[in-house]
Amino acid sequence: IPDDYYGGGIFCIWSNPTLSNLNIMGNTAFRNGGGIFCSASSPKLENIKISGNSSSYGGGICCQGSSPTLIEVKIIGNTATTNAGGFDMAFGSNPVLRDVIIQENSATAGGGIFCYDDSNPTLENTTITNNSASAGGGIYCCQNSSPSLVNCILWNDSPQEVYFIEEADWNNLPCEIMISYSDIQDGEEGIVTNNYGTVYWGEGNIDDNPLFCDPDSSDYTVAENS
């Protein structure tokens, strides 16, 4: 396999490194993980900015059979020619995201996040905004994947905040998503299930302008009066 196929910035396989206080910027992988690629690994990423990276799958991060923990990570302006401009999660990956911002990433499917094949991410205090794709601007789910969101913001992702692949499109299994205490643009209507999946719409969800501090300058932290 050519060296440039996986992990343009960082490549992890059967390893659990702790990475902190880094900028991972401007890297390219031909296949998976322009910024970071993880296989059978559980790295901890803290206070990291992953930006301007590109690949076919997972412009920012691609994890396969891995369960990384991300704390105070920014995934910004990455691109994928196929799936997951920001974060590609596949083959039983169960990442945990806390205080993460995923913004301005682009792909054909899943501008922010692409969940595939029994992948079940947990998102807490995470903002997904201004990402774009042909389908699933914020989050794209297929093959029995089940994201869980608590205290998150999905806003201004195009064309949908959340999208489940159609049954006819793939040898597919239905997906689920669990959302509570979160701000979702267009509410439940911002989630397109194609009648092939389940939305567990929990307590405390709203559809209100999150009042980002300065979105024109790509500052998507929320104002004090949010």
Descriptive notes:
This protein has 226 residues and is mainly beta. Strands 2, 4, 7, 10, 11, 13, 14, 16, 17, 19, 20 and 22 form a twelve-stranded parallel beta sheet that branches. The chain has strands spanning 10-13, 18-25, 36-39, 44-51, 54-57, 61-64, 69-76, 79-83, 87-90, 96-98, 101-103, 113-116, 122-124, 127-129, 139-142, 148-150, 153-155, 162-164, 175-180, 183-184, 191-192, 197-201, 212-214, 219-222. It starts with 9 loop residues before the first strand and ends with a strand. It is 0% helix and 44% strand. 52% of the residues are buried.
Quick synopsis:
With 226 residues, this protein is mainly β. It is built from no helices and 24 strands. Strands 2, 4, 7, 10, 11, 13, 14, 16, 17, 19, 20 and 22 form a twelve-stranded parallel sheet that branches. It has an eight-stranded parallel sheet with strand order 1-3-6-9-12-15-18-21, with no helix packed on it. The chain has a two-stranded parallel sheet with strand order 5-8.
Characteristic terms for this protein:
mainly beta; 226 residues; 24 strands; eight-stranded parallel sheet; twelve-stranded parallel sheet; 44% strand; 0% helix; globular
- Beta-strand percent range: 35-45%
Number of helices: 0
Largest beta sheet, briefly? Answer: 12 strands, parallel
Mean pLDDT over all positions = 94
What is the CA-based Rg, rounded? 16 Å
SSE order: EEEEEEEEEEEEEEEEEEEEEEEE
Flag low-confidence runs. none
Distance between the termini: 49 Å
Shape: globular
Number of strands: 24
Instruction: Tell me roughly what share of residues is in helical segments.
Output: under 10%
Structural category: mainly beta
